[in-house]
Amino acid sequence: MTAPSDPEAALRSAHREAGQGPIRRITRMTLDHPLLFTISVVSTLIAAGLQLTIPLLLGRAVDQTQGLLERPDETAQGALLLTALTLLVVSILRGVFTMAQNYTAENLGHRVGYALRLAVYDKTQRLSFSFHDKSHSGDLVTLGILDLEGVRMYFSTAFIRTILLTVLIGVGAAVMVSIDPVLALVALCFAPFVAWRSSATQLRMRATWLELQDRLAVLTRVMEENLGGIRVVRAFAGFRHEMFKFDRASARAMQLAFHRVALRVRNSSAMTLSFFAAMGLVLWVGGGKVIAGSLTVGELTTFLTFMTILQMPVRQLGLMVNAFARAGTCGRRVFDLLDREVEIEDAPDAKPLEIGAGTLRFEDVHFAYPDAPESPILNGVSFEATRGETVGIVGPPGSGKSTLSHLIPRFYDVTDGTISIDGQDIRNVRLDDLRRAAAVVQQDSFLFTTTLENNIAYADPWATDTRIAGAAGSAQLHDYIIGLPEQYGTVVGERGVSLSGGQRQRLSIARTVMQRPNVLVFDDSTAAIDAATEARIRAAMEEEADSRVTLIVAHRLASLMHADRILFLDKGRVVEEGTHDELLAKGGRYAALHALQTRPEDDVIAEMEDAR
Questions:
Q1: In this model, does residue 497 exceed pLDDT 70?
Q2: Could you tell me the pTM of the whole model?
């Protein structure tokens, strides 16, 4: 049986019945595969029934053997042979149906896991930046692996096991009571203790598992941060400090793991002792009944075999309780993520974005991050930029420059005011259209672990080699690439660590240029590029500047002196506006920043000393 071929159906299945309990939602997802569900349940019932037949056949075989010893004849031999063949057939059929149950249950569980895996991945792709700002990637990876595994195993370890244990324990106990009620009570005296210890142990194991999962998540974060910043670690000789952090996190996880092992061993020993004690009592009481003639040796064998069969199901009651608890806990986390509202998505009546004159307009835009509404980042920003115009945005750290650039492609939504392109409120157009039309070259030049060609063509995987080379040329990266042994087929390392900072930024610029946006925003994306290379990039970009609006966010004034207009932001407000020469002539904040960046260092220090 193959995996589901309709990912959309899998996603709908995972998202259905939002707000319901996790166990109910998981169970409903299993019912989306009725054939597998039916085969698994029916196979479980048949396998359990066949397993309960085995003690009866063994008891009959013992009595027949004893009778054969007392009176050997062909009839008795034939009866014993028939019983032996029946036992063999029953055992084979039990194995076949058990195999069918295990296969179909695991198959169904993997299908549910497949649907949830798609749904979780789909959700994480659509959740807004504000969610990812507050969520650690290690926690999401843990949810996508360990929690999904807990949900996936629900059907085989909880649902099917419940059916199996109910049949084995319920019917098995009824059969023993029908043979001899007193001996049945003796035989089952271990069951309450084992069920209690097993359930209590598994619940404690579950609690410690959740804590262990948290400690392993911490360990994952430590390793992830270390590997991500390995160059910083090496540069500052932080090996011992990093080893101490990792050792401390690892030791905490190991300590809890040892505690779990001790807990499991102690309780397993106690349950095993109680079972063999009960078996000894059955032999003592049952032996007396055999001597008294009220019980046959075969019936005593039946009791002992039933006890052996029931030992594992009774011990698995705790595993079943744990499976339900784990599925409930893990399912709650998974469905909490799936049910989370997507803050940035298409409006119900979203329309295609129609580009005409290509005018970008901010009208009294206010913005505050959702978790800090009392601390606005932008306060009444208004400006307009037309096609072919380059607008520079500068200001002190925390003035809202990067936030402003992130509002244009709707990484966040404005708190108040309007951002429009050709008079169309960006909140009322399709998000895909908007992000194709408005692109941001971000400060973090993230690169995928793939070839240079694939990194550049990420926005258009089917682009021609000529377009890819042209984009790289505009970013002043083409000459470097063709000098590599594999040229555009060269694979860059994780996060582009095989490239320098300036090369990563240039590759990020090339990737964005490939998109051919109508609004192109450089968010301090040339900070690691030398002035000469930046000038060449700017000259190359001017060839296509007439076809789009260009915004340049920068701390270094040399990056935006050529802009048609410069906005100076401070505390989320536009406090100065004009060309480079006009702003210098005003002698205001921009002029002071220009003087700070261009005057000799000694003059600046002397002026600061005089100010003291």
A1: no
A2: 0.71
